[in-house]
Amino acid sequence: MTSKTLSPPSIGSATLRADGAAKVSGTEKYALDLYSEGGLWAGVKRAGVPHARLKGIFTESACKVPGVRSIITHADIKGENRQGVVQKDQPVLVDDIIRHRGDAVALVVAESLSSLESALGLVTIDFEPLPGIFDIDSALLIEPELLIRENAEGKVISIVAKTVKGDVIGHSSLYNSAPCKNVFEGGAGLVHTAYRGGKGVLTQMVIHGFKATITSGVEQVFGETVSNHPFSQKLSHGQGFVTRAMEINLMPADAYAKEESAKSRVTTLMDFRTLVSSPCDVYVPKAYDEIFSIFYKDMDDDRRFLPSDETLPASQSTKCSTTIFDFAQVARLSIEETGDDFMEVISKEEEKLISQGIRVIQIWLSTGVPYVGEAVDILRKSSYFFCGVLPRWFDNDGLLMERIFDAPDWDAMVLHLDRAKELAQIIRSDWERAEGL
After folding, report:
1. Beta-carbon neighbour count of residue 206 at 10 Å?
2. Which of 182, 207, 238, 404 sits most deeply, having the most CB atoms within 10 A of its CB?
């Protein structure tokens, strides 16, 4: 496909799609158009069923098709057969549970397109149909083997609520979603409808879950509490968590349609609590020198604050890992290394995300490097604004910057604590600065 390198001034401004003219005129080249003589063709056999337990894959007939070079299933994968955005829990090639019709069960490689298509049609599977999952209550009952395995591997810490008879009525979890493997997020709480409405099941799961992390090797815990009602904020504060950042416009209003608690995108608070002390140096960007201490107020660990006064190094390239949440129209960019090509890398990534309809772009930067300030200055000139600090995010601390494409409904935020109100006002002020560019 054609590409175009953006010049630095284009960051933060509307640009034409680099491949737009070629696509609408029909001259764009796609992968299928780029076949070279002697090349091989590859295709994926999809499950074709929405929910089932895989019992067998049959490739004998497909292997006999002239021109077929190889057929690969999960049994041929010698390494890790898992990938994923937040947790690597999705099979590359299905080895147990089929979760949607498009799940990949086999990869076929052939010498020609006709051989490939013939072979794909001859790969068959044996499966046990499983019922569809259409609500939260049903979701509580599925795939216990997966939960057991991921708990054993330390990827998830499950908190299960049961009746005295042993019936499961709720499940909550803690899981690693930050770049640092010792930082876990608490969330994904589900309670059976018959036990909701002031019975305290979720509250007790949260309390028990926090106690469980103390003996599990987790060193920092955080949670995202919503701003459209105060219950989760009160629960978090009651367990000693402190708000350090806010994710402005994180969730679409549609996510709260059933309870009718939001008319516009919903902001979440990021609340942190330290379990194991890990003192570190924090380099403070000059642009936020006056407000950093407010976000670190009552920090439950030692920090040494230093000025960030170095320039971006030319000796290394910027490394950026992007996670897209399509349903929420949110993209998260984790900056693993920052070089003097930072502006160019972010500009290219931003252009791509905007073309995909992303409404919120988040950027995580490490404050453990003395040149973070210059990266912040670049983002500030491109309509990004400061949203808070992230303790232990990269093992050392981080900070969050956002660019959003819808005005937040600041007045609709229901904030329980004065601290949250103070942080919201600081963040709003920086958003207004960014909007005025």
Report:
1. 22
2. 404
